[in-house]
TrEMBL record:
CDD domains: SET_SMYD. This is SET domain-containing protein. SMART domains: SET (SM00317). Residues 288-325 are annotated as: Disordered. Residues 10-256 form the SET domain.
Length: 381
């Protein structure tokens, strides 16, 4: 973890919240646009199956888009890198494991199993290369329902891959897969206005960020700049406040685009993370009809008169703020109008640029397409 993680200790504290587990709360008042956490991944692994065709156009270490000067591994010939520095992280054990898996029948397994195997190879490699980081991985919470393939994968990898200098048991493999299910963050492919859905290029484990709970109207959002210039830190996750919050309030982000309707959100959370959301927004939308929920996905803000009314009433802070459960209309149109990107097929969340000194920024940046617009409303919701 880089210095951003150390600085976050002053801004956030880990607290056990009844019904929500380990959570991050504001250790002091936080400002809109403030960077509250910057964290490097504990490990990264490709989201592509082993025999993807065409091969992934990304460096197998930093996952930037490859250029014409990229270099392919001369030993296994299965992965490419953008620089000699990235190649140096491709250990002999990992290289030989990929080569043997490629020659086995494992490529006939489902894409999901192949990606799980990629995670296990990265985790095993971490155990050998950095035992202290491996212990951090094991300390994370896990979902015990996600280990149905652990026995098969353990047996296969044990039989095919070269021996590791550290012992790996079936129980440890099951525990690792349980951690990956609920602690992995996807690094997405570049945004394109012509595509309605972006795919994941790589997954990463970010221990401190994984403490951050979900809320369907978040007060913080994550940014990443995978294809940015520079040689270090391009796979860091940066958490930035969407608006001001007081000391002691839980800091939450949304695990998916905020425009998803109630039923889709609940299904996604239950399937991927093993829980149902009971945030203030969900409590309201649970009583809506199916048509009202479908309309919500197409909603991108109300008219100016309603925006002014919402601002006067002070609604829309999300993540632990109360709303009127008897209100049959959407109670957070202010949030959608101000903080949801309007670019076609984007569905990103807007957050102010980091403040300079005491002055809050008037510019909002989208965490998906990267576009910047002037904040036409101003103030806090």
């Amino acid at each position: 973890m880089n210095d951003g993680g150390a600085k976050s200790e002053l801004l956030l504290q880990v607290t056990e919240i009844n019904g929500r587990g380990r959570s991050l709360v504001a250790a002091q008042p936080l400002r809109g646009g403030q960077v509250i956490l910057r964290e490097s991944p504990l490990l990264l692994y490709s989201a592509f199956p082993f025999l993807s065709s065409p091969p992934p156009p990304y460096c197998d270490h930093c996952f930037r888009l490859l250029s014409q000067s990229s270099q392919r591994c001369q030993s296994c010939s299965l992965v490419s890198f953008c620089s000699p520095n990235c190649i140096s992280f491709h250990t002999p054990w990992l290289c030989e494991s990929l080569r043997r898996l490629h020659q086995s029948s494992f490529a006939e397994q489902s894409p999901e199993r192949q990606v799980q195997a990629r995670f296990l190879l990265s985790a095993y490699n971490l155990a050998a290369a950095s035992p202290s980081d491996f212990q951090i991985l094991l300390s994370l919470q896990g979902n015990g329902d996600s280990t149905s393939d652990s026995g098969f994968l353990h047996s296969l990898l044990s039989a095919v891959c070269p021996p590791l200098p550290v012992p790996i048991s079936p129980e440890l493999t099951a525990a690792l897969l349980a951690k990956d299910k609920v602690n992995g963050f996807g690094l997405m492919e570049p945004f394109s206005v012509t595509s309605e859905k972006r795919s994941v290029r790589a997954y990463g484990i970010y221990p401190k960020t994984s403490f951050m709970n979900h809320d369907c109207l978040p007060n913080a959002c994550r940014f990443d700049y995978v294809d940015s210039g520079g040689s270090d830190g391009n796979t860091d996750i940066i958490i930035r406040m969407i608006h001001d919050v007081p000391q002691g309030r839980e800091v939450c982000m949304s695990y998916f685009p905020v425009n998803m309707n109630y039923s889709s959100r609940q299904e996604r959370l239950l399937e991927d993370y093993g829980f149902r959301c009971e945030c203030d927004r969900c409590k309201v939308e649970a009583s809506w009809s199916e048509d009202e929920n479908e309309d919500m996905e197409e909603m991108d803000g109300e008219d100016d008169e309603e925006e002014e009314e919402m601002e006067e009433e002070g609604e829309g802070e999300g993540c632990g703020d109360g709303v009127d459960d008897d209100d049959s209309s959407f109670p957070h149109s202010y949030f959608f109008a101000r903080y949801m990107c309007e670019k076609e097929n984007c569905f990103g969340t807007l957050a102010p640029l980091p403040p300079k000194g005491h002055d809050a920024s008037r510019l909002l940046e989208c965490n998906v397409c990267g576009s910047v617009k002037e904040d036409e409303v101003g103030g806090n919701p």
